[in-house]
Design goal:
Shape of chain A: globular
Shape of chain B: globular
Largest interface: A-B, 10 and 10 residues
CATH topology of the largest domain in chain B: Non-ribosomal Peptide Synthetase Peptidyl Carrier Protein, Chain A
CATH architecture of chain A: Roll
Largest sheet of chain B: 2 strands, antiparallel
Number of domains of chain A: 1
CATH architecture of the largest domain in chain B: Orthogonal Bundle
Number of strands of chain B: 2
Order of helices and strands of chain B: HHHEEHHH
CATH superfamily of the largest domain in chain B: ACP-like
Helix content of chain A: 25-40%
Oligomer: heterodimer
Largest sheet of chain A: 6 strands, antiparallel
Radius of gyration of chain A: 17 Å
Number of domains of chain B: 2
Strand order of the largest sheet of chain B: 1-2
Strand order of the largest sheet of chain A: 1-2-4-5-6-3
Order of helices and strands of chain A: HEEHHEEEEHH
Number of strands of chain A: 6
Number of helices of chain A: 5
């Protein structure tokens, strides 16, 4: 007998791994800035594993959250014509941890962008208070370079992320007008 | 008025300490970016962006370091630059000091051309042209 749980696991195995560290966009201005939020919850296994007995979101996943926010901003700015890979973490500073019940907000801005790469600056807020700064460099990788053997999984966005943006623009859970 | 060489050096040093996470005193004029300061390829992009912002200049691809010359098989014979290749490289990099490199123009040493002074020279040339 196939239980609902087994069916769920089967469905999960068929889909891509859900490596999504932002829940929804709350602001998106094409080519300029984007903001996304993430609600931290005890249902996330890694919270229990990072520091046993003291559930916190690993700060590396806050960097990832910013990379996803800024990566979509950068990809969209050039019409998703190129793949975008996180090339360098220029700055990652955190003054506080985030735990269950906290809401993180990632505010990303494009500092510069051209055909080679993009630089972004970003602020991380916890429940509205600034707790960190994450500045990144993304490299644009075109189709020709892809054939050199760069792995697909390095790319920042998949359909899952494009869907997040589409949801915001459609006035999804927290989306306003998208403009 | 164009900034003095000391002012340019001081700003270049600040750019390099931020981009490469090195200490001020490591950024001597003769330090090579790759060998001495540990710069990797993506760091050069970071440095270019920071220099553009700091000095309000535009640095076109291949101007600070003309990698297309090295990628051209006509200019490289096995592990060495051909005489024509070396001439091309010198013409393309008036900001670099070729005294050492000319003695033994092996490709593996080409990044030694990019020292802190090379960057300062380049910025000075750009600022004069502006």
């Amino acid at each position: 007998m196939v239980t609902p749980v087994a069916r769920g696991i089967e469905a999960r195995d068929r889909s891509d791994m859900r490596w999504i560290w932002i829940d929804t966009f709350v602001d998106f201005v094409s080519g300029s800035r984007a903001s996304a939020v993430k609600n931290v919850t005890l249902a996330e296994d890694h919270l229990h594993d990072h520091v046993p007995g003291h559930p916190i979101l690993p700060p590396s996943l806050m960097i990832e959250g910013m990379a996803q926010t800024a990566g979509i901003l950068v990809g969209e700015a050039r019409g998703f014509a190129e793949n975008v890979i996180l090339a360098k973490i220029r700055v990652a500073e955190f003054e506080d941890y985030a735990g269950p019940g906290d809401q993180l907000r990632y505010d990303a801005e494009i500092e510069s962008i051209d055909e080679r790469a993009a630089m972004t600056t970003g602020t991380v807020l916890k429940n509205g208070v600034k707790v960190g700064r994450v500045d990144l460099i993304f490299s644009h990788v075109n189709q020709a370079e892809q054939t050199l053997g760069l792995p697909d999984h390095n790319f920042v966005f998949t359909d899952q992320f494009v869907d997040l943006l589409a949801e915001f623009r459609a006035g999804g859970p927290r989306g306003e007008s998208g403009e | 008025m164009a900034p003095s060489r000391d002012e340019v050096f001081s700003k270049v040093r600040a750019v390099l300490t931020e981009a490469l996470g090195v200490d001020d005193d490591e950024v001597s004029p003769e330090a090579t970016l790759q060998g001495d300061l540990g710069a990797e390829s993506i760091d050069f992009l970071d440095i270019v962006f920071r220099l553009e912002k700091e000095f309000s200049i535009k640095i076109p691809k291949g101007e600070l370091f003309p990698e297309d010359i090295l990628n051209n098989p006509e200019y490289v014979d096995e592990d060495r630059m051909t005489p024509t290749g070396l001439d091309k490289l010198k013409a393309a990099m008036p900001h670099a000091d070729f005294t050492q490199f000319e003695q033994n123009a092996v490709v593996s040493k080409v990044f030694d051309l990019i020292t802190v002074s090379t960057i300062v020279n380049y910025v000075e040339i750009k600022l004069e042209a502006a």
